[in-house]
Amino acid sequence: MNSLHEVLERVDARLLSPGSDVRIWSTGFPLLDDALGGGLRAGSLNLLAGSQGEGKTTFALQIARHCARHGRPVLFFSFELEAEVLLQKVIAAEAADSGVEGPISVYQVRAAFEDADGVEGGLPERLGRFPGGLDALTTVSEYAPLLTIHRSTTTHTHLDVISSAVKEVLAEHGESPLVVVDYLQKVRPVADMDEEQAITHVTERLKDVAIEFDCPVLAISASDRAGLEPGHRMRARNMKGSTALAYEADVVLIIANKADIVARHHLMYSANNGEHFKEWSVLTIEKNRSGRTGAEIEFRKQFAYGRFVPQGEVVTEKLVDERVFTD
To answer: In terms of Cα–Cα distance, which of 147, 248, 165 is closest to 206?
Structure first.
């Protein structure tokens, strides 16, 4: 328990000690930070949802990479991808961030990791053949100790495991990490429950983790069947599970392919029938307890380099909830 007097003293002490007890984690996407009131907040549960293949893991990993690069510890629970695969994306993204022309791609990094590039030597020799490769490897090596990947499984990674891992990172670095869960519906509850009960329990416990460790939790959420239907724009109500997802979360972000949700007349009258819209993803802020709700920001995809271009733009076209297909 805290009296208001204690809260006032704590806030005052924080303000008088610049750089200490920072409670906001920048995402690395300036327009998103502005809409969220600065970034992801300590004690908050943030959900990132979208259909399969929309780049949810890439987006979350980019936020994680940005935080680690700026000196903040990160704990990434990956139910989907091996640590090496995530590292390959990180290296390629760093090369693209550097602004070099024709940077090394995820495919080229993967070939080097798997000894499939026909080159002898270690990573410096192999990655150094491509623009930005060696510099990216050096940069990643500098912040790599701050970015911890937990290879998670539905069998063994239950809520107590998540809590214990957060404690370990806190003890190692002296501050709480950004916690990323990829993804929420695969976290094992502590007891046998039906699907809806399990997701409710996991959601509530992840919010408890955020509060207990005074850190942001960013959890990726899967879509239900309705949210995956062609022409349907996913909304918070389409997150797979129960109403607890939208209720407990402090922030709900929905990512979608722009070509799937832009109004039909933009497709009909634009060059190439709107093919260029496929190069962009729209991030909608469906819920935000600390800032604006309803903001729609678009980011250019660069999946070949494991990233989105962080300098997004406010969506100017009309978007729709459902696309009506006609012959």
So the answer is: 248
